[in-house]
Amino acid sequence: MTTIRHCAFAAVLAGALALAGCDSLPGLGGAGDALDIPEIAAGDISETTMKDVVRQLSSDEFEGRMPGTVGEEKTIALLTERFKAAGLQPGNNGSWVQEVPLIEITGKDYGPLAITGKNGKLAFDFAKDWVGVTYREEAQTTLKDSELVFVGYGINAPEKGWNDYAGLDVKGKTVVILVNDPDWQTAALEGPFNGKAMTYYGRWTYKFEEAARQGAAGALIVHQTEPAAYGWNVVESSWTGPQAYAQRGKDAPPLTQMNGWVTEDAARKLLKAAGQDLDALTKAAQAKGFKAVPLGMTLSTSFASSFRRFTSHNVIGILPGSEAPDEYVLHTAHWDHLGRCTPAPDGDDICNGAIDNATGTAALVALAEAQAKAGPARRTMVFLAVTAEESGLLGADYYAANPVFPLAQTVGGVNMDALQMAGPAKDVTAVGFGKSALDRFLDAALKADGRSVTSDPKPENGYYYRSDHFAFAKRGVPMLYIDGGQDLVDGGRAAGEAVAQDYTDNRYHGPKDAFDENWDWSGVMADLQLYYRLGRMMAMSTSWPNWNDGDEFRAIRDDSCKASEKGC
């Protein structure tokens, strides 16, 4: 599971969401439509396989599974061997791997963020007041006298009738943007952007992407702890030092010269010098029809960048379908972790990543074995172990941008990330519950297991947008992201909270996330039965579940389905 720059550790989840109704295109199933959801018997899933694969992947021999290291080589070899032994076939035109070209960009020699206006000059120090990076492969980044424009939340959402860039030309300019959605302070889950539940439009990733589409030279997000869901210390530590990205092809989307963040204090000073007030601008930006505000000031800064290029790998195995082999159901998990990291007090400096995410990777192997034993389903099942999740979902995003199997022919899927050793639970947690008709498959699988679903009490933090499934969701493929339950059979929710907090405090992204021979596997094995049923339900079904009406990914899926001659 990624660092907070890309992901926050999922909070304890509680409270169910009701399904929303939706219309559907012919052949697509929305939440209000009849769906073919077959009954699926329990699978023969090996606990021994789970233990063996997690033990190996998280051993010191694998050195923390950092992409581009000997740890990757060992991981790819192990997964290829285990996928083959499970009965899968190579998933990439006869190969077990998909090459993922990566580039590591390290910024250095940062100048101050110099702001000039009619009321004088301001200078903000790098790291203390602002951070910035370039996604371009250029040795020197220079912004000189770039006009500053406040664009509210930086959202262009035609389906909602909302465009913060309406009538605005920002080419060569630097846009100043608020984090989260306009209605994030709403107590309920109702509003133009789902109330307090963060949408994709609230994520910093979207805001930078949209600024680039609009032609901006630079983009600065105003950091505020509550709507961002993390403090400036997290931004500062995550946005300095080496940054890994997928290498770009010739038809890649446009990029700004510089993307960055400014502290709230720096933003207030900047806006005050422009004769504006952050609180007043924020209030105005929360109303539909907001018009961007030119600030009458310019920004200048410069920094250098160094580069390291290397190739990592996604691992892909398939169980071909018997009746509809060109329709696909995804199972995803990331194999990578952090490699060597800050040493523990005992000197241990290997972040082994046993929970995060040797467990999810091992689950791919165990589920592949079980599905192969059960025989082919109607549709093809894809088992995809992706790289570089910890660097920003890079392996998943590369596959989704360069799919081996067309996304319009991909029915949907499940993502597995950091399976917790908490013992059996009465529930599972579903992040993003209520977004698509896949919820009804989840309901059916839970009913078969005699369990319930709970949902996120902090939807404003946008956890659905912070793991590998998001790379597919934002391109229209319905995906489920499920965590282990919090209502434990032994100890209830209090015990569930304690387990989650202990992992966060003592093991998450540290050297002590290591394999333990004394783990209780019963809860994980129960969750694997749920994943097994979900995958086989989708693979045996004739339906194409869609996003719910009004969801931000619905129009993307509808458009891809209209353009496809096969699949949805």
Summarize the structure.
The chain has 568 residues and is α/β, with parallel strands linked by helices. The protein has helices at residues 47-57, 70-86, 204-213, 225-228, 232-238, 264-273, 278-285, 354-374, 394-401, 438-449, 469-473, 492-506, 522-540, 554-563; strands spanning 28-29, 89-90, 97-108, 113-117, 120-124, 130-133, 140-150, 156-157, 162-163, 174-178, 218-222, 243-246, 258-262, 293-319, 324-334, 339-340, 350-351, 379-386, 410-415, 427-431, 452-455, 479-483, 544-545. The chain folds into 2 domains: 28-101 and 311-563, Aminopeptidase (3-Layer(aba) Sandwich); 105-307, Glucose Oxidase, domain 1.
Number of strands: 23
Main beta sheet: 17 strands, mixed
What is the CATH architecture term of the largest domain?
3-Layer(aba) Sandwich
Distance between the termini: 31 Å
Mean pLDDT: 91
> In the CATH hierarchy, what is the class of the largest domain?
Alpha Beta
Given helix and strand content, the structural type is alpha/beta
Shape annotation: globular
State the helical fraction: 25-40%
Count up the domains: 2
Q: Which percent band covers the strand fraction? A: 15-25%
Supply the number of helical segments.
14
Low-confidence stretches: 3-26
CATH 4th-level superfamily of the largest domain: Zn peptidases
Radius of gyration: 23 Å
